[in-house]
Amino acid sequence: xxxxxxxxxxxxxxxxxxxxxxxxxxxxxxxxxxxxxxxxxxxxxxxxxxxxxxxxxxxxxxxxxxxxxxxxxxxxxxxxxxxxxxxxxxxxxxxxxxxxxxxxxxxxxxxxxxxxxxxxxxxxxx
Length: 126
Known about the structure:
- The chain is α+β, with helices and mostly antiparallel strands.
- The chain is built from 3 helices and 3 strands; from the N terminus they run E-H-E-E-H-H.
- It has helices at residues 11-22, 64-85, 106-113, and strands spanning 2-8, 27-33, 39-45.
- A 3-stranded antiparallel sheet has the order 1-3-2, covered by helices on one side.
- The model is unreliable at 97-101 and 114-124 (pLDDT under 50).
């Protein structure tokens, strides 16, 4: 038999931890309230039923130059897809043009030329 103790802020969390670690065949031996709060559960399971934890494999060090190249390739792909999905709207000469969509129409240009002194009631006291 393999015995383990599990704690949690409540019984359902502690029981979930028991089942995650020991499986559905675990037997609850003791349940008690912890003095600092929460629940402690002592559970057991047949040692043959417990699977060994996965061994941690050593990973090779990350080459930042490779990551940087991959990121640049992905960025280029995203830009290309973005251009394919959203082609430039008619009337725009360059994708780098900085005019806002509100000034693309004659009414928008006229509104952009309006100053705050021409707008009645703005900045004026009664």
